[in-house]
Amino acid sequence: xxxxxxxxxxxxxxxxxxEAVGGIIDGMPAGFRIDFDAIDAEMERRRPGSSPLVTTRxxxxxxxxxxxxxxxxTLGTPIAFxxxxxxxxxxxxxxxxxxxxxxxxxxxxxxxxxxxDHRGGGxxxxxxxxxxxxxxxxxxxxxxxxxxxxTARPASIGGIEIRSERDMERAEEAIREARAxxxxxxxxxxxxxxxxxxxxxxxxxxxxxxxxxxxxxSINAAKGFEYGDGFASAASxxxxxxxxxxIDNGHVRTRTNHSGGIQGxxxxxxxxxxxxxxxxxxxxxxxxxxxxxxxxxxxxxxGGRHDICVVPxxxxxxxxxxxxxxxxxxxLARL
Amino acid sequence: xxxxxxxxxxxxxxxxxxEAVGGIIDGMPAGFRIDFDAIDAEMERRRPGSSPLVTTRxxxxxxxxxxxxxxxxTLGTPIAFxxxxxxxxxxxxxxxxxxxxxxxxxxxxxxxxxxxDHRGGGxxxxxxxxxxxxxxxxxxxxxxxxxxxxTARPASIGGIEIRSERDMERAEEAIREARAxxxxxxxxxxxxxxxxxxxxxxxxxxxxxxxxxxxxxSINAAKGFEYGDGFASAASxxxxxxxxxxIDNGHVRTRTNHSGGIQGxxxxxxxxxxxxxxxxxxxxxxxxxxxxxxxxxxxxxxGGRHDICVVPxxxxxxxxxxxxxxxxxxxLARL
Amino acid sequence: xxxxxxxxxxxxxxxxxxEAVGGIIDGMPAGFRIDFDAIDAEMERRRPGSSPLVTTRxxxxxxxxxxxxxxxxTLGTPIAFxxxxxxxxxxxxxxxxxxxxxxxxxxxxxxxxxxxDHRGGGxxxxxxxxxxxxxxxxxxxxxxxxxxxxTARPASIGGIEIRSERDMERAEEAIREARAxxxxxxxxxxxxxxxxxxxxxxxxxxxxxxxxxxxxxSINAAKGFEYGDGFASAASxxxxxxxxxxIDNGHVRTRTNHSGGIQGxxxxxxxxxxxxxxxxxxxxxxxxxxxxxxxxxxxxxxGGRHDICVVPxxxxxxxxxxxxxxxxxxxLARL
Amino acid sequence: xxxxxxxxxxxxxxxxxxEAVGGIIDGMPAGFRIDFDAIDAEMERRRPGSSPLVTTRxxxxxxxxxxxxxxxxTLGTPIAFxxxxxxxxxxxxxxxxxxxxxxxxxxxxxxxxxxxDHRGGGxxxxxxxxxxxxxxxxxxxxxxxxxxxxTARPASIGGIEIRSERDMERAEEAIREARAxxxxxxxxxxxxxxxxxxxxxxxxxxxxxxxxxxxxxSINAAKGFEYGDGFASAASxxxxxxxxxxIDNGHVRTRTNHSGGIQGxxxxxxxxxxxxxxxxxxxxxxxxxxxxxxxxxxxxxxGGRHDICVVPxxxxxxxxxxxxxxxxxxxLARL
Lengths: 335, 335, 335, 335
Prior knowledge:
The structure is a homotetramer. In chain A, 27% of the residues lie in helices and 24% in strands. Chain A has helices at 36-46, 106-113, 129-145, 165-180, 208-217, 230-234, 311-332, and strands at 3-4, 9-13, 20-26, 63-65, 69-70, 73-74, 79-84, 149-157, 160-161, 187-194, 222-227, 245-248, 251-254, 262-263, 266-267, 272-278, 288-291, 297-300. In chain A, strand 1 (3-4) and strand 2 form a beta hairpin. The mean pLDDT of chain A is 93. At the C-D interface, strand 1, helix 2, helix 5, strand 11 and helix 6 of C face strand 1, helix 2, helix 5, strand 11 and helix 6 of D.
């Protein structure tokens, strides 16, 4: 279950304080020239410390490719890659060897496996998404060569809708204030896929929105997914939701896009548009009631360096998962 | 892609105006006694005409089981079943042989396959969900034998939140009004899974919320999915979202359940709680602009008998998909 | 695990003495005109009583298609079909309600499921292959439209290699003799796929020979698979096995075909050639030592009408499985 | 298609002259203590140069584990590992940049991907099996802890059946002679799985012999698979093949084991026994006719250091694939 996709498949690995994180991409079309600088740029977007809004930990996130590429060209064989875990301060986590952090995966991993790597969240850490971003960067490049772009952006932070630079400044201020009062914030990310042909998505259980929802809900801290008018459409009337068709230069188009580019589970050629909700960062720098793996009640206060809001760093992860999903759908549809 | 699940797998078939709909359940545990009356009761809940709120078409939805069960006991072999399509008035759809209905799957199926069954929506019709409800009814029975219940309910209709009988009366009135002005309504369904053990869900891409989101977004007209505090959590602060642990009679419990029973993608033993948003019914009884399969602009007005709001009939479909997902997760976890 | 294939997928169902056998084909390309007479002809080849060499039971094997086809054209949606079980004499099997027939699946199904349908072998009966032949017939038609033919033939029966009509007569005589002395015979089937393009098969675990071997070894009574020079190559020298390349009218060809049309797991454009070994029919009309489901030793003698040698009826099943495998590989390779 | 298995899944990567080979094991049960020395011992068995019979290239095959294990204990998370490619003499292969070696994957990879890594066979090289042996060694250890052993041995080399030490000496002599006359030899490997419980294997398409056949035919140079009496049974009579049941200390046993431990696709508790045929090594040190990727005829003579017979090094690979298959079947059966 660490594999994502059908034809374009990504299998990830890695604990946050283990040797490395990374993965294997299987099903990448052969003969494609990789832009390694573009991959590094994506990694930099996800990296902690990449903006004043995010944690100050430094992770160089240098990718080493192990197979599947020769002279920069994909061979059609599996592309394996790894990113060493270099900057791990495991001692920060000693207090957590036996106590479960509330709202984290600590207890559920213990319940499921009877064992867990308590250092930095182990496999459940956001560190794992580094592999997704690297794989997604390759998918994104290939899609771009086919005229398909994938672009995500912060849509709201702590309840502030972000539609302008000014809104973003207000959101940054809200993050600073939350940090000051030792609290954290949630938010939403919006993603738009442009240039995708009609015909992506496989009825009935492989509807494009089902593939995208599964991809997005697999991201840490994601709590909701909606596409097109989403939850707002549930409070609306049919007459407000109708995307009438017309012909534009010989192409079928819709005058509006309440559908979010997907009808009957299949893309219709309009922009594919969806939103993902993220909860506030679970790690609160204050004492919280909890229990231990020997069934005793205790209190835990987590130190370490942590983000206040996951949204800025989630943006490239949303793009990566969207790119892998769309490329997989493209190959499934044999387009 | 007409198969759902990993260990408990359902493969569906059927167009709304073809011979029959139905499916094959693979992976059902052997030796389980089926309650056929309970299946019929679920089918009745989904049936058009089962309440004054829904369309008046009559579909007997009589299930014929073809394999996998002997003397009422499951054999561990595939359970195939079919429901004949008896009450089909295909002539209602003659106008749609060449014109695409807006907001339906007509155009996208044509774009994908170059052919479509225009009668009643074909494979994209809600008729297809009859098979899901039958399969889900079997999953639900098995879960009940393990102490796990799956219960969905209308949570809102046309913007009216439903928390009481009175709210439901207001919602019914809203449906009648919408029908009168030839419009349709959206709404949301809430589902709660109680009694599920800790340990369901498979990191990283098989997180329980990813499995549930994929299941729900595969339902016709679904536009959004959220679990726990969902989109509301995106506008909240971490201190409002913390589910602190305590020991209750030797069991690990959380004092609150903002998490919706899932942490790190794995169930924690609390109620699993999620919501699905449905758009208003796409079929509007009024003339709409559209195009034909020969790329000409035209106007279409769809007759036939149609629902105003999908929510009442969606409730058993949500339960069915949830039951199949939870049973699959249970078997995957070898619990 | 009742599903075969990746893109072209067949999910089968049915016990020999249940209501029906059949299945669902998912992934069949849309817009293909089905030749129903050709399907019936394939069913007739597999049917008991179709030759003096096989059992005299009559199974009409009338196929009813339930979905996925309209006016004889495939829709791209799942094709479900069923074949009623009409000629079942379950009383023949009363003796087997508690005793396990040696060399059958009786004991292992009981060990696995704790329950079994003892009538006629249940799910483990060769009756199940009727569904495969129907699905394979559709795959075969589609391949033929692409210039690919799949042809199997009896290669040996009871140790007699069959290279001529005369050999076949000797084999028929051997079958009559075996019947007379209440014994049964094994044999082999050879299959040749002609016209397949180079490029079928997916390294590493999806090698074309691995896909074919899995398909063939899933047939009842199959005990071995080999392709190209197979087991004979294991006793040979490299200099006897070399298929040198040359250019023929601008195409790469090999002068010999020891490789059986597959190199490195991928088809090379030459004939794909393989053999399947079948054991003698397990049902011997004589008393045999066995045990019951209550752990008592007993003796069993099976009545009923049974074949002497599986080879004649296995030929269309081998073709069906080969056709489904090659079509799946063709779609996987996006050719 | 570089992934093997259902619950216990291995995804491999690596070209022979790339950076590294390795893979990711997903689905390994948590809490199991790994014996790293035992893994190294398996790697040593597969290593070139490990016996006078095999090539003299030295590959240290030092495994580096990247995730999924902490303090020697499995975490239940993916186990990634890599083996650096250190001893690569790519210049040996310059002659092959454009010419296809007969009987290798050179032409078919080119036909499929339009690109290939010609150095040492690239992804199609036997080097790839190093990853399988490492993953299989872990599966083998886990099976051993459950009382299940997997043991393969050379069964024939160049037509010499190996039943004793003396036979092995004759086989070694045959290899030396073949080397002297610049030829190569084929052979067979027999494998026995002891201690496996009844109930492994999933009808219909997941029959245990189908899983094993797929696993074995995915190994380089494998040309055939048979289980139990295999191809010999095809030339035999039913009365010679009957495994009668009896009760032994409360357990169901068979007096003989022509079935090879599998009946109806499901293990019956007896030894699981099968054979794999391997063709002679394809690399012949003599000039051979071939063609180039620009469609010209030419002659090629491959230098480098190569084995004469694949059988000695194939033995641990057969064991590794068998161990992974049996463990997967065990987990699928929830045993």
